[in-house]
């Protein structure tokens, strides 16, 4: 048995296959020692292999995402049902990936946290990103969203302020709940979102057992150019699991990578996670019968009026071969739509559509779409030229290579025929203005969500929000309490009671934030040691 386990000698071909080379393809004969004057040094400047190795190492990281920095990903397939609910999907959209029952489209999904950095614990209270890239026959479609179905704000002008408030203090570099709740207190439309975030829904147990949502309102367009408003929802067939704060603390004490490990291990075991894609459909008009604007990202569309209609199922069945190449360099954008899918007038969607693609060009470069993880499976032919790290030319067979413009009579690229009638929404007969929408209704749905929670979810919300509010100054406390009381009187009363209880405890109340408490305990619990 021992002889059988001995490593067999490699053939010459095998040796060549595993031989270390540099990026020029030169075999590396010594990867242990730099070239020096004598064996003690100094090092000489002509150490080409060392210089190539170390300068590449110095550039191994691209700029971290400002949001959604920590992520995990997987490959899979989306299978269409050919219907939306009980109706043919073609009634509402001509997008090819949905039309045929059983039609399969390759996908790549990146899950992430939102506010925290690239190596932050996956147990932190935070929305989770859920971004899906569909490699369709008509090119890529990116469905970019979160696990929670709503958002903190409804106007993209506030997005940088929101992220600044939620990120670490620019002086101390410590995330401060007073800054977080200061923004929330002065943004009453955030009341619904924090009701979810401070409940167990703010800490999903893992990526496999969480919902996903496009959050924004989009449109579907059929062959006649007729459009409807749609909301996208991913529903996990593994069920939904969330964590209480204390449970999350215990998991973090064991390891801070649990969600990434869970996803990777499940796929390696062959327990492929699955989600059904559902849509809610609404006619594309003002809907005066609703007490909110259907384009408002801080609102849920009532399921009893706009039911979830199944359109297909996604299965994740393959782990990445290289994290950086596939997960870190994966680039998504809300503007990446295929024919039959369109934008609504959702303000946040309009703002995100510019921001996402702009961010990818900053992080990865002008030609990020040529990277294999981002490149469509369909043919690409453009008149784009140049740019950093461009490594292929987007030419069509038979195209005149001298013509990189359109229109042309010299054999250049030509426009594609239309797949259906253009969707031509009517322009609004109104003034340009800077105003809030006229049905903000910032508190009603927050109250409904609070009342719809199970008792243990309400208890956890009260404990988490009250404890964090105790760390804030009185002005912020009263503004947040006023907002949640508008949502539900019991909600406000119970959070106030919890806040006052925490503040009465000198171990927990302000001015000792938890970070200060942790620093104090570390000094007290530290074990003395002699210098060496």
UniProtKB/TrEMBL annotation:
Residues 520-532 have a biased composition (Basic and acidic residues). It comes from the Bacteria. The active site is at residues 68, 146. It is an enzyme of class 1 (oxidoreductase). Pfam families: Catalase, Catalase-rel. The keyword Heme applies. The keyword Glycosyltransferase does not apply. GO terms for cellular component: cytoplasm. Heme binds at residue 356. Its cofactor is heme. Its EC number is 1.11.1.6. Residues 21-414 form the Catalase core domain. Keywords: Heme, Hydrogen peroxide, Iron, Metal-binding, Oxidoreductase, Peroxidase. Residues 1-40, 505-532 are annotated as: Disordered. InterPro entries: Catalase, Catalase_AS, Catalase_clade1/3, Catalase_core, Catalase_haem_BS, Catalase_immune_responsive, Catalase_sf. GO terms for biological process: hydrogen peroxide catabolic process; response to hydrogen peroxide. It catalyses: 2 H2O2 = O2 + 2 H2O. Residues 8-36 have a biased composition (Polar residues). GO terms for molecular function: catalase activity; heme binding; metal ion binding. Decomposes hydrogen peroxide into water and oxygen; serves to protect cells from the toxic effects of hydrogen peroxide. Belongs to the catalase family. This is Catalase. It comes from Paenibacillus bovis.
